[in-house]
Design goal:
Elements: H1 2-22, E1 27-31, H2 41-49, E2 53-55, H3 71-81, E3 87-91, H4 92-97, H5 102-105, H6 110-126, E4 131-138, H7 156-175, H8 180-192, H9 195-220, E5 226-231, H10 239-253, E6 261-265, H11 270-283, E7 288-293, H12 310-320, E8 324-325, E9 334-339, H13 369-381, E10 386-390, H14 399-407, E11 416-418, H15 423-437, H16 442-474, H17 478-483, H18 489-507, E12 518-520, E13 530-532
Parallel strand pairs: 1-2, 1-3, 3-4, 4-5, 5-6, 7-8, 7-9, 9-10, 10-11
Antiparallel strand pairs: 12-13
Helix pairs in contact: 2-11, 2-15, 2-16, 6-9, 7-8, 9-10, 11-15, 12-15, 13-14, 16-18
Length: 535
C-alpha cells in the first residue's frame, strides 16, 4: 500500500511540474507608464520571450513626452480585455494621470482623480479572482531645471533649483532644524520664486500624495493584490523623500505587510519587476538568487538618484519579483553580479555636454574592473546561470568592463544584462530578466542581450556621446536640439544608426538581425532610442 502511495505521489509531482512548465502561454495584460521602448516594447519582449502572451494597449493610447492620452480610451480598453487574462500589471500613473510625465504637470480635479481611482473597485468586482498588480510613483524632485525640458512645468527651467532647495530646507527643518544661514536662504528663495509657481508645484504634489494613499487603501482592502510605490529620481532631504516617509507611516499605521506593498527607489523598471512576479505567481515559483558585488564598497554603495544602499534596493526588488536571497550559489537559480565602483562612486561622464564633461577617463580599466570580470568568468565557467547589473555609471555601460567581457567571450554566456539609466533601473531590469531567462530559449536570451548591448553599451556609453557632441558643435542652439530635435530627426537618427551598425559589426556576433537594424529616437530627443531589428 505504501509503495502504491509513493508511486501516486511521484506521478502527482511530475504532473504538477509539467503543468507549471506548460503554464507558459497564459495571458498577461500590461499597461506601462508611457510608450517609451524600455517601459513598453522592450519590457513586453522579455515576458514574451519567456513564453507568455502579452496583452498590450494600442501604443497611441499611451502617453508620449508631449501629451497624456485619453483616459477613457485606455480605461475602456482595460475593461474590455481584463476579463480574458490570467494576470494584470497596471501603471496607476497611466490610468489616473495619463502617464509619468503628465503626473508631474496635470490640472486634474480631486473629484476626477477620485473617480479614476474608484474604477479599480469596479475591476475587482467584475474579476474577483484575478491577480491585479499596480505600479505607482511619487513625483520626482529634480535638483535643478533644464531649459527646454518637457518633463516638468515650464517654470521649473528657471526656478527648479530654487524650488528644490526651498523644499529640501523645509524638510530638513522638520527633521533636524536649520541654521540661521539656512533660514536666510529659505527667505531669499521665497522672494525669488513667484508664489503661484511654488504653490502650483506643491498643490499638485499634495493631490498626488492623496491619490497614493487611496491606492494604499485599495491594497489594504484586497482590491489591488500588490502595489509598488516608486521614488522617482530623488535625493536626500528632498520633497520626494519627505512624502515617502509620510506614506511609510501611513502604511505602517494600517499594518500593510511587504507581501502586499513595497516602497523603494526607482520607477521605469517596475513594470518588468511586477511582470516577473506575475509569472512566478502563475507558475508557483520562488526563484532563489545569490548576489555578489565588485570589491570595495559593494553592497553598501548608495548610487546617484537613490537614498538607499544597493543591497536594500536588490532585496526589495527581488521581494517584489517573488524571489528570495540565498547565501550560496549552489542553492541559487540565478547568480546576480553587481558591477559597483570600489569607491562607491556613480560616474556621469557619459552623455554630458562637452562643455560640462569631466576629465575622467571612462575608457580605461579602473580599480575593480579586472576583479569583477574575473568573478563573472569564474561563475560562468563553473556552470552557474549568471546575470550582470552594470551600475558604475549613472547612464550607460562600463566600457572597460564590457570590452573585457567581449575579449573573454562572455557577453553571450550571460543570462541577462542591464546598464541603462539609474542604478535601480538597471538592477530591477536585469534581475527580472535573469529570473525569467530560465524559461527562455538560447536564441531568445541572446536577442534580449543584443538589445541591451546595443542600447546600454553601444548607444548610451558611446554613440550618444559622439552624436551629441556633433549636435552641440554643429547645430546652432545645439543644447536645445539635444533634447528636442526640432524636425532634424532623420539626419540625427541616420547618423546614430550608421554608428550603431558599425559598433555591432565590431563588437557583437554576426547574427542576421544585427546587420540591418534601424534606430529611431522615440521621444524626439537623445535620451532614449528604439531599435528595430530586421526580420
Amino acid at each position: 500500500m505504501r509503495i502504491l502511495f509513493q508511486i501516486f505521489l511521484t506521478l502527482t509531482l511530475i504532473l504538477m511540474t509539467t503543468a507549471r512548465a506548460d503554464a507558459a502561454g497564459e495571458k498577461i495584460l500590461y499597461i506601462p507608464v508611457d510608450d517609451r521602448p524600455i517601459t513598453f516594447k522592450q519590457t513586453a519582449e522579455v515576458v514574451t520571450a519567456a513564453g507568455y502572451e502579452m496583452i498590450l494597449p494600442p501604443k497611441n493610447y499611451l502617453s508620449r513626452y508631449d501629451n497624456g492620452q485619453s483616459f477613457d480610451k485606455l480605461w475602456s480598453w482595460l475593461e474590455e480585455n481584463i476579463s480574458n487574462v490570467d494576470a494584470a500589471v497596471i501603471s496607476a500613473d497611466a490610468v489616473i494621470y495619463g502617464g509619468l510625465i503628465p503626473s508631474r504637470k496635470h490640472e486634474i480635479s480631486e473629484s476626477d482623480l477620485d473617480a479614476r481611482i474608484n474604477r479599480f473597485k469596479a475591476l475587482r468586482e467584475k474579476n474577483p479572482h484575478l491577480k491585479i498588480y499596480v505600479l505607482a510613483s511619487l513625483m520626482r524632485a529634480p535638483h535643478e531645471g533644464t531649459a527646454g525640458s518637457v518633463e516638468e512645468p515650464d517654470y521649473y527651467a528657471q526656478y527648479g533649483a530654487d524650488i528644490f532647495r526651498y523644499t529640501s530646507l523645509a524638510y530638513k527643518g522638520e527633521v533636524s532644524g536649520l541654521t540661521s544661514g539656512e533660514h536666510d536662504a529659505m527667505y531669499a528663495i521665497q522672494n525669488r520664486v513667484p508664489t503661484e509657481f511654488l504653490n502650483d508645484w506643491l498643490s499638485r504634489r499634495k493631490k498626488n500624495l492623496d491619490v497614493t494613499k487611496k491606492l494604499i487603501d485599495l491594497t489594504d482592502e484586497g482590491i489591488i493584490n500588490y502595489l509598488i510605490i516608486g521614488r522617482d529620481d530623488h535625493w536626500t532631504f528632498s520633497q520626494t523623500q519627505r512624502e515617502s516617509n509620510e506614506l511609510t507611516s501611513y502604511a505602517q499605521k494600517n499594518n500593510i505587510p511587504k507581501y502586499k506593498l513595497q516602497m523603494l527607489s526607482g520607477v521605469d523598471e517596475f513594470g518588468l519587476v511586477l511582470l516577473a512576479r506575475a509569472v512566478d505567481d502563475l507558475r508557483g515559483d520562488i526563484p532563489k538568487v545569490f548576489v555578489a558585488y565588485n570589491k570595495g564598497t559593494g553592497a553598501e554603495t548608495i548610487p546617484a538618484y537613490s537614498d538607499e544602499t544597493v543591497a536594500n534596493s536588490i532585496e526589495s526588488e527581488l521581494t517584489i519579483a517573488g524571489g528570495e536571497l540565498v547565501n550560496n550559489p549552489e542553492s541559487a537559480d540565478l547568480v546576480f553580479l553587481v558591477n559597483t565602483d570600489p569607491a562607491g562612486e556613480t560616474y556621469h561622464s557619459h552623455n554630458s555636454s562637452p562643455f560640462s564633461r569631466s576629465s575622467f577617463d571612462y575608457n580605461s580599466p579602473r580599480d575593480g574592473t579586472k576583479y569583477f570580470v574575473d568573478m563573472v568568468e569564474r561563475y560562468v565557467n563553473e556552470g552557474y546561470p549568471v546575470c550582470v547589473a552594470d551600475i558604475t555609471f549613472g547612464n550607460g555601460a562600463d566600457n572597460p568592463m564590457m570590452n573585457m567581457l567581449k575579449e573573454r567571450g562572455l557577453l553571450f554566456k550571460l543570462q541577462a544584462y542591464a546598464g541603462w539609466n539609474t542604478a535601480t533601473n538597471s538592477i530591477g531590469y536585469s534581475l527580472s530578466t535573469g529570473i525569467l531567462a530560465r524559461h527562455m530559449s538560447t536564441d531568445a536570451k541572446d536577442k534580449l542581450l543584443a538589445t541591451r548591448y546595443l542600447d546600454d553599451w553601444a548607444y548610451q556609453a558611446n554613440v550618444r556621446t559622439t552624436v551629441g557632441d556633433w549636435i552641440y558643435y554643429n547645430i546652432p542652439d545645439g543644447e536645445k536640439f539635444y533634447s528636442n530635435f526640432g524636425g532634424r530627426n532623420f539626419e540625427i537618427e541616420d547618423a546614430i544608426t550608421k554608428l550603431m551598425r558599425e559598433f555591432a559589426a565590431k563588437n557583437l556576433p554576426p547574427y542576421d538581425y544585427l546587420r540591418d537594424f534601424n534606430v529611431t529616437c522615440a521621444w524626439n530627443r537623445m535620451f532614449e532610442i528604439d531599435i528595430e531589428f530586421s526580420e
